[in-house]
From TrEMBL, chain A:
The keyword Transcription does not apply. It comes from the Bacteria. Its main location: membrane. This is Peptide/nickel transport system permease protein. One of its GO terms (biological process) is transmembrane transport. The keyword Membrane applies. InterPro entries: BP-dependent_transpt_permease, MetI-like, MetI-like_sf, OppC_N. It is a multi-pass membrane protein.
From TrEMBL, chain B:
Keywords: Cell membrane, Membrane, Transmembrane, Transmembrane helix, Transport. Belongs to the binding-protein-dependent transport system permease family. It is found in: Cell membrane. PANTHER family: ABC TRANSPORTER PERMEASE PROTEIN (PTHR43163:SF2), DIPEPTIDE TRANSPORT SYSTEM PERMEASE PROTEIN DPPB-RELATED (PTHR43163). This is Peptide/nickel transport system permease protein. GO terms for biological process: transmembrane transport. It comes from Devosia enhydra. The lineage of its organism: Bacteria, Pseudomonadati, Pseudomonadota, Alphaproteobacteria, Hyphomicrobiales.
């Protein structure tokens, strides 16, 4: 059971948010790998936000791309007069700039899909745990069925059905992922639901949505933090996979996955950099998020230290 | 028990029916199949005849019932592109996918289980920590990216293995298979390893957790007190203890491995069902998509049903709780 659930209500009030955050950070910082990963994520977010200022070139401005610059080796000086540190792709895009902009798109899609899946999954899971009975049975049957299928397959099917575009892609990712959130919060909320303070709250004339939002939700939340982090990473990976399969966003604004797919045909002729560098950026992003999530899971684990 | 059984089967049938409606509607909603099938230069008369012939002029619900009627007779329609019955098309690609998936499962267990047992047997050793790091990578690295690296390293740089395709196959009982000849081996090894990575990570973790648990149990302590050799203790007692959960997960993961094959087959140009479905999505070959999706739904529902029923047989509490 969660530590917060076992703590007396008075204790929770006595501890300020700041002191609890401080405790959390101290435990988190025990792992140097996790701290470094967190710094890497911060750097990636920084690059993604300030991509237009950091990039030597606007990779989306087709008028500025020169086909004479296509497939230049890393370190070559192009017609723009500056060094293409990571080379250029087939359309003559500077790869470094393309990666910065690609990170932007990949992160945006990952966060958007993760957040939406969180809200939808959380609502469904909470309602199921609170209502119980047939509603719960039905909802959780659907969720379980969905969890038994691989997310990649669902996302693949949905993008195929919905067609290309940002919102279609996000919808596909959300449908493929909300079930993880629903399952997790349902587990912790069902355990909380049976505790006395919820029973007491139900006995008062408080409306259901207040009990759900003010009492049940905050106390069921901790396990969800880990799932949310992991799911952002897997949304990014899923999006990259879909783009690689040609089912992602149109190529005018390539995400990391699309960049990799784009370079795949040149890989066989030895022009490795077009695929490999965007891939490295993708892998660093996914692995750092996963490492942070791993440490958060470790810190939040109530059985830790026993 | 019979009531539980009937209830589960009934639920599974409802799921299949609902999913078939969703799949049919969803696939119908994309694009205009007529544009794919009919030569744009064809006259209006030819178009009308073909539209009537394929039933596109009838209401959607009527098309669905015609479709279901045909499916129940094993007729999924004809591929728009290949002009052959869809079921024949999918079945002709199935052996390649099954061979790849089985190869991947084999690689995952042959490498994953011993590594996991070692990591559980010596949890503090450096090698064990390296093994666990490997399993995290197996989980978190995107399959397609690893596949790409494999192609780059072993095919493009080292020229050791072919970069894709299935190579020569030999027929066994009329089924074309790759693993019979050494040349076939050289084609299957890279994609199979690529597909194995996720399960490899999973098996390492499972085997490690099971071994850790078994090592601290009384029966291992007694086996040691008896003077059994360590190899016997691990090979006999530990292995037996971890076998059941591994076999369970293995069964469940087979479906996912078939699904993940979509990615691996695309990278390695492996002529299986996954490659077929991606190609079909690209050209909007509607009957192939519908048939593939319904077969996949059927596969997963059956796997779930079997697992559910087995749990019901093994544990009366589940039976009681779920029937309530």
């Amino acid at each position: 059971m969660s530590t917060i659930g076992d703590t007396k209500v008075d204790d929770i009030k006595a501890e300020t948010w700041a002191s609890r955050l401080g405790d959390f950070w101290r435990d988190f910082a025990e792992s140097k790998v996790a701290v470094v990963s967190l710094l890497v994520i911060a750097a990636i977010i920084f690059v993604a936000i300030f991509a237009p200022l950091l990039s030597p070139q606007d990779p989306y401005d087709l008028a500025r791309l020169d086909l004479f610059d296509s497939r230049l080796r890393p370190g070559t000086v192009g017609s723009g007069g500056y060094v293409h540190v990571l080379g250029t792709d087939a359309a003559g895009r500077d790869l470094l700039s393309a990666i910065f902009y690609g990170l932007r798109i990949s992160l945006m899609i990952g966060l958007l899909a993760g957040l939406l899946a969180l809200v939808i999954g959380m609502t469904i899971g909470l309602v199921a745990a609170y209502r119980g009975g047939r509603v719960e049975a039905l909802i959780m049957r659907v969720v379980d069925l969905q969890l038994s299928m691989p997310a990649i397959l669902l996302a693949l099917v949905l993008t195929a059905m919905l067609g290309q575009g940002l919102w279609q892609l996000v919808t596909a990712l959300v449908v493929a992922q909300y079930a993880y959130f629903a399952r997790t919060i349902h587990g912790s909320a069902s355990a909380e639901r049976d505790k006395d303070y919820i029973e007491a709250a139900i006995a008062t004339p408080l409306p259901a949505h207040i009990i759900l939002l003010r009492h049940l939700l905050p106390n069921s939340l901790p396990p969800l933090i880990v799932v949310a982090t992991v799911q952002v990473a897997s949304a990014i990976a899923l999006e990259a996979t879909l783009s690689f399969l040609g089912l992602g966003l149109p190529l005018t604004q390539p995400s990391l996955g699309a960049l990799i797919a784009n370079g795949f045909q040149y890989l066989l002729s030895g022009r490795f950099w077009i695929s490999v560098y965007p891939g490295i950026a993708l892998v660093i992003t996914i692995v750092s998020i996963n490492l942070v999530a791993d440490q958060v899971r470790h810190v939040l684990n109530p059985r830790r230290g026993q | 028990m019979l009531g539980f059984f009937i209830q589960r089967v009934f639920q599974a049938v409802i799921v299949v029916v609902v999913m078939s409606i969703l799949v049919f509607l969803g696939v119908y909603a994309i694009g205009n199949p007529i544009d794919v099938m009919i030569d744009p230069a064809a006259t209006q008369q030819i178009r009308d005849t073909l539209i009537r012939q394929y039933g596109f002029d009838r209401p959607l619900w009527e098309q669905y019932f015609v479709f279901v009627g045909n499916v129940l007779q094993g007729d999924f329609g004809q591929s728009f592109v290949y002009r052959v019955p869809v079921l024949d098309l999918i079945f002709s690609r199935l052996p390649a996918t099954f061979e790849l998936a089985l190869g991947a499962m084999l690689i995952a267990s042959v490498i994953g289980i011993p590594l996991g047992i070692w990591a559980g047997y010596r949890p503090r050793a450096f090698s064990s920590k390296a093994i666990m790091a490997l399993s995290i990578l197996g989980f978190s690295l995107p399959t397609f990216w690893v596949g790409l690296l494999l192609v780059m390293t072993f095919a493009v740089q080292l020229h050791w293995l072919p970069s894709g395709g299935r190579g020569p196959t030999s027929d066994i009982l009329g089924i074309p298979l790759s693993f019979v000849t050494p040349a076939g081996w050289s084609y299957i090894i890279l994609p199979a390893f690529n597909l194995a990575l996720f399960n490899l990570g999973l098996l390492i973790r499972l085997a490690r957790a099971g071994t850790l648990e078994a090592m601290s149990s009384d029966y291992v302590r007694f086996a040691r007190a008896q003077g059994l050799k360590e190899s016997k203790v691990v090979g006999l007692h530990v292995l037996k203890n971890i076998a059941i959960p591994i076999v369970t997960v293995f069964g469940l993961e087979f479906g996912s491995t078939l699904a993940f094959a979509v990615v691996t087959e695309t990278i390695f140009n492996w002529p299986g069902v996954g490659k077929l479905i991606i190609d079909s999505i690209m050209v909007l070959d509607r009957p192939v998509m519908v048939a593939y999706l319904i077969l996949v739904v059927l596969l997963f529902v059956i796997i779930n049903l079997v697992v559910d029923l087995l749990y019901g047989v093994l544990d009366p509490r589940i039976r009681a709780r779920r029937a309530a």
